[in-house]
Amino acid sequence: MTALGIILKSAPCNAHAVLINFANSKTSAYRSGAGSIYPLLKRLTDASYLSLENKKYSLTESGLQAIREWILPPFGPNDISTNLDVLRSRVYFLKLLTPPEIKAFLDESRSNLQALLQDCQEITASYQTSGDRFSELAMLGAVRETEARIAWIEEIAQALS
User: Fold this and answer.
1) Domain region containing 124
2) Which of 18, 28, 107, 116 is deepest in the core (most CB within 10 A)?
3) Residue 35 domain-assigned (yes or no)
4) What is the mean pLDDT of each run of 10 residues along the chain (161 residues)?
């Protein structure tokens, strides 16, 4: 559905534009290569969600309806859940590390999250400048999530000090 949304916002666009959008995402689950994107676009075209003309994709009425249904409630249990967080997964096993290694883990995590936060803030500002209000608001969610993750890392450091 995200691919349909990218095409909706960029249509008509070629497959490479969709690939670049995924490649530039700050969300690791959305980072896909040509080996995933090109077959996905073929499946969406075969399912009549996309039309392809002169190597440019556009949403069909079926595609527009599919994305609308995906956006609207009701939401399933997988729609409202915690995100996969590799840092959180690693924290479960910090007892395997020495105190200096734990400190290094926390320092590196904090530093990388702060860099991610800055990137997300810059992307949010670019959406604001372009007038793309809904993309700005969506990216604001990434800003808030990253701020929360930084606060959580700081809580861990405080609890272990």
Assistant:
1) 86-160
2) 18
3) yes
4) 95 94 84 86 97 97 97 93 92 98 98 98 98 97 98 98 93
